[in-house]
């Protein structure tokens, strides 16, 4: 059996994304410092700034901490179980709108559609109900960020990116999925998105989908556009007018009085 193909996003282009993201973080830090100056002027404000900087960095680290080992094991299971028609792209970074970035852990494209996999390497017991999640920490249940809500944001913005690339007809074929790679216990109830407790379970789920919504050439075309995706650029006014004219040919027609 031929295995799924692994593709990688263009490294140089990806560095451009990370540079823009770093610039955005720097601007956000400056805004926080300005707010401190306004709220707490003088010596106390100066004392608070390093603490605010530290809190911001810790929050970003939490967001960025994906658990690379768990993700790699999941990828191996996808790679070994899915057939050759599938394309797997790990750690995809896109800028669908100006200064709006998404980082998709695994993006998988096959005949049934485009699957956005949000991976969490959370340990311990996890409960999910109606898209809200609790984690057990020190024998207490603590509310945590919802990977389902996070992935719905990815779905929406990825749809915006498809529109910009002229792939609007594929928007209904975007399917977000959540994967926990190493939970001790996972229970979900009334969640609006599929949630899996292992890469193998998710791979079997994907392999079981028999719909042929995308042809091989469409799969290749979408995948190649993703791996070569560039940061958001504003269209010049003339190009915007031309784009509107293409979408609405009536703009080109002179009114008859």
TrEMBL record:
Q: Which InterPro entries match?
A: NERD
Q: What is this protein called?
A: NERD domain-containing protein
Q: What domain of life does the native source organism fall in?
A: Bacteria
Q: Where is the NERD domain?
A: 66-181
